[in-house]
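Subgroup meeting minutes
Present: P.N., E.W., G.H.
Scribe: E.W.

1. P.N. recapped why we're keeping a running log of single-chain structure predictions: easier to compare across weeks, and new members can see raw inputs and outputs side by side.
2. G.H. added today's entry (114 aa).
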Amino acid sequence: QVQLVESGGGLVQAGGSLRLSCAASGRTDSINAMGWYRQAPGNQREYVASITRAGSTNYSDYVKGRFTISRDSAKNTVYLQMNNLKPEDTAVYYCNAATWRNYWGQGTQVTVSS
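Output recorded in log:
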């Protein structure tokens, strides 16, 4: 079992920045990759970014160049630095851990005002 706890969401004006954190606990040695997804009201959950055990990163086209995913392996924590935020980035952001199955955090709200 893997447990995920997100933090760092909030309200920010367009053009501002936020950093999300996701702390993993439990069977962290079984995690192959961690990532972030988001879900806006009325929309399906969509992929944002991910980082593999080897450190390779990937981003959706919507956030490439604005968001940066990183990790602190000693703390079993993944971060999402979000810069130049836009109102369309408003969503609940979910942390994901991929093992033989997917684990999800409880979500953290990010609201970007125009």
